[in-house]
């Protein structure tokens, strides 16, 4: 048997020893949608959203919780987050497009990233984005020029680097002096950036943002960074500027293995808020609006990856390899970050573990191992295994390496499942030419002419779901790209 603390809140083991999530039998899900499959529990997502909102807002009512989209995002998830009162942190034009497609007001969107393109910045300003988080002198000048051309005054935050080590993986440490992110306080670049922002005629500096890294299992780095950044901000009062918004980022950890014990949301909230309040009191500053950006801590434990066992290779005295039908193409984290996970037999969840195995992916890379030397019940070809805490940075970092398809994502709740609608674009010589020419608009025509080869437009996929009674006419109209073609469906029942 195993502990359920890393799994979604609704996880149960039924009388047949089968893992159930959101009232759905995982074996049935695997058979219906295929494997690999990512299962997301809606109740867990909403519970995590409410926990962050409640714990921070009861301490600072004006706190805004902003979900970090890079952890994983789709239009359905945008709708759920919006219903729970969260805004969105986006880092690309694609994530901004998804936020808009999901119906979220752009005033609740914050645009991050260390090298936003001119096209992305222009789109953000045109769409009335809430805040652009400026990350470089180049971007500061570019955004000012774009805002002037569009006749707008864009509100911004300046990202600073406090030089605090959060003691996490080097690849996910972002707040030290040797980082591509933000303006360093130690070098004096942060002070120059703030002054340049205040002098930019088409920008309105609202506050400061920093992000230490992720996942952060310790509380002290937040305290140290908050103290340093607020003292830095206080220096500008003599120059007529007072910080109005303060964002210590996110980085909140989750448990990936049974022996990990990350701080609870309550502890993160208490540490951040008490540090903010005590420093503001000491410095004689009014409390700024607090912005926090959880991503992993909302979606991570809500997602479970399902795989089907194929080949089993036992090398006596060395290792027993259990190969599954996914791997680094859908979860690159073990190869990239040496991330570790728990593994459970979804079809033998009530049985004791009796053998040590290594879960190997199907990709032609020796580093494609999802879990090394873990204990499982007797494993057989055809078994379904489940890897919890897979909701964050697995599907969002997925690729088509070796031309394998990306896995489907299914949302479960109250015994029902639903899968997002997918547009299908297949590789071809014509697609290569379009990409080389930069004629992205021609992709639609390519998909239209490629139906016989399995291509499918988004609107066609949506209409198919409606005809199968899987979505309502209102939902079909909401997510359609050519909404006028779906207006006759409005008011239709599910």
Count the DSSP helices.
15
Distance N to C terminus: 40 Å
**Molecular shape:** globular
Described by strand count, sense and barrel closure, the largest sheet is: 9 strands, mixed
Helical residue percent band: 25-40%
Number of strands: 21
Strand content: 15-25%
What structural category do the secondary elements indicate?
alpha/beta
Looking at how many chains there are and whether they match, the oligomeric state comes to single chain
Instruction: Tell me the number of structural domains.
Output: 3
CATH topology of the largest domain: TIM Barrel
Name the CATH homologous superfamily of the largest domain.
Answer: Alanine racemase
Radius of gyration: 24 Å
CATH class of the largest domain: Alpha Beta
Named CATH architecture of the largest domain: Alpha-Beta Barrel
Please state the average pLDDT score: 90
Point out poorly predicted stretches: none
Descriptive key words:
494 residues; TIM Barrel; alpha/beta; 3 domains; Lyase, Ornithine Decarboxylase, Chain A, domain 1; 15 helices; eight-stranded parallel β-barrel
